[in-house]
Amino acid sequence: QVQLVESGGGLVQAGGSLRLSCAASGRTSREYAKGWFRQAPGKEREFVAAVTWSYGRTNYADSVKGRFTISGDNAKNTVYLQMNSRSTEDTAVYYCAAAYTDYGRGRPGSEEYEYDYWGQGTQVTVSS
Fold first, then answer.
1. Which residue in 19, 48, 57, 113 has its CB near the most CB atoms, within 10 A?
2. What is the pLDDT of residues 22-31, one digit of tens each?
3. How far apart are CA 39 and CA 31, in angstroms?
């Protein structure tokens, strides 16, 4: 089993920055990628960003390109999501997820079914 714990959420003003962290524990040796998803009130969960461990390939949703940056620390089994230039539309519960699919040199996936383990989520609220 793998446990994922998100942290760093909270209340931030529009235009500000916030960094989320996701620490993994358990049987992480066969993990190939980590991703972030989010779910806003009344909406379905959507993909935000992902990164592969082996080649550092990234994948971003169009809505966050140029504003969010995903990165990982393999030694700590931790992935980060740096969120800049936040807007109220970024208000959501943010979930970390781990994928055990080997993407090789390709970009990590953006579909929920590609991810095998999920964290409990952390609330991010952006005020205007």
1. 48
2. 999 888 777 8
3. 24
